[in-house]
Design brief:
about 240 residues, 6 helices, Rossmann fold, alpha/beta, about 25% helix, six-stranded mixed beta sheet
């Protein structure tokens, strides 16, 4: 793998009010607020994830006899990844603006509200519009159900989403919106509460893993480097509703 730090463009998509802004704010700023303010258009923040990977190296340690041939070793190695995380408007009137931000996306995170069945069904439209505009043949896709703390109001179980989404999304003939072609349902479907940093971190750790998988599948993929923002100084609370 290239020694330069890889940067992945990540876009959060889903209906207004499902918690996209809160999820990003929790991950980047470690801040949560119940206040709601709709996102207009889109913007991005950056952060870093250290992903542990199994890598093969030559065993050239000093304890070997000079005649010994170095033997390959498989070790666990932390790989630094930069994430450029785009938050997009979930309201229909801003769709034409938000679509401008889809181009070149490496990983899309589809977010729904476990207390709102329609927000899950609407992922069909979100994903189709994304694929129509991202200009990436095979992006990584992660599905996240938010508001797991509101269990008494739940209308969707995690075990149901594969069947619901594939029946809904695969009803057409366009193979580009067949989620089974993009999602590993065992590893890429999450249920979280964005109030809890550990749950949010698991999502973005997986985002980093998927990004590195994309590089391994396509070694010629461009790796972009840019400075990350200082997330420790003077952060404001993001306005969102979980």
């Amino acid at each position: 793998m290239d020694t330069e730090t890889p940067t992945f463009k990540v876009v959060l998509l889903g209906d207004s009010g499902v918690g996209k802004t809160c999820i990003r704010s929790q991950f980047v700023h470690h801040i949560f607020t119940n206040a709601y303010k709709a996102t207009i258009g889109g913007d991005y923040l950056t952060s870093t994830v250290m992903v542990t990977r199994r890598v093969t190296t030559d065993d050239a340690g000093s304890n070997h006899d000079t005649n010994d041939i170095p033997q390959p070793q498989t070790i666990q190695k932390p790989i630094k990844t930069h994430l450029q995380i785009w938050d997009t408007a979930g309201q229909e009137r801003f769709n034409s603006i938000s679509r401008a931000f889809y181009r070149g996306t490496d990983i899309v995170v589809l977010v729904y509200d476990i207390t709102n069945y329609e927000s899950l069904l609407n992922l069909k439209t979100w994903f189709k519009n994304f694929m129509d505009h991202c200009q990436v043949p095979h992006p990584g896709v992660i599905v996240v159900g938010n508001k797991s703390d509101q269990a008494s109001d739940r209308v969707i179980d995690l075990e149901e989403i594969k069947e619901i989404l594939t029946l809904n999304i695969n009803s057409g003939t366009d193979s580009d919106i067949n989620l089974n072609n993009y999602v590993n349902w065992e590893t890429d479907a999450f249920e979280i509460c964005c109030k809890k940093l550990d749950l949010v971190n698991k999502v973005f750790y997986r985002v980093g893993e998927v990004g590195l998988d994309l590089i391994e599948e396509n070694p010629k993929k461009d790796i972009v480097a840019f400075d990350t923002i200082d997330i420790g100084a003077g952060q404001r609370a993001s306005k969102c509703f979980c």
